[in-house]
Amino acid sequence: MSIINDRLLGIHDDALIFQERSLKMRAENIANADTPGYKARAMSFDQAMETALQSKSSSAGSAGRLKTEDPRQIGGGGVSSGIREGFSVPDAPALDGNTVDLDKERVGFTQDAVGYQTTLSFLNSRVSGIKKALSGQ
Questions:
Q1: pLDDT tens, residue by residue, 63-121
Q2: C-alpha dihedral sign at 88, 84, 53, 69
Q3: How many C-beta atoms lie closer than 10 Å to residue 126's C-beta?
Q4: Where are the beta strands (DSSP E) in the chain?
Q5: Tally of CB atoms within 10 A around 133
Q6: Is 90 within 8 Å of 99 (Cβ atoms)?
């Protein structure tokens, strides 16, 4: 993101990316709830946002710095590097080695979906406010 987008959208563009990634992970976990040996994946949204905030604050004065999205690129370490994925530890593991706790995944999916919708609503109001300002309303 450019410095203009960082100032207009703040951290909310990163939040949307992290929430989308978490929703995808939870959907994969739910889809594989009956797969023997499947290890449920998880991510820490709070930790990802903290990393993104630190990254934005440390690069606030570097408007000309090239930002990359893939950590494999030269100078990599963009938004995607803030996502720390791991495996979730179940309260009661299944005999077949599957670690998906379906109840926790459903609750987490609902929370992530609400957070995603809230972030989208905020960004929508922000963009419409910018449009009004540009049109002179």
A1: 444 455 665 555 444 444 455 667 777 777 777 888 999 999 999 999 999 999 999 99
A2: negative
A3: 14
A4: 41-43, 85-87
A5: 9
A6: yes
Phi-psi region of 10 (alpha: psi -120 to 50; beta: other; left: phi over 0): left
Tokens encoding 67: 């930002």
Cα(49)–Cα(28) distance, rounded to whole angstroms? 22
Which two structure tokens, joined as six digits, stand for 124? 């929508």
Sign of CA dihedral 20, 23, 29, 32: negative
Q: Rounded to the nearest 10 degrees, what angle do helices 12-31 and 102-135 cross at?
A: 150
Residues pairing with 87 in the sheet: 41
Residue ranges with strand state E in 39-137: 41-43, 85-87
Q: Given this model, what pLDDT does residue 56 score?
A: 63
At position 56, the amino acid (one-letter code) is: K
- Give pLDDT tens digits for 46-68: 676 677 667 666 655 444 444 55
Q: How far is CA 2 from CA 20, 21, 63, 75, in A?
A: 21, 22, 7, 16
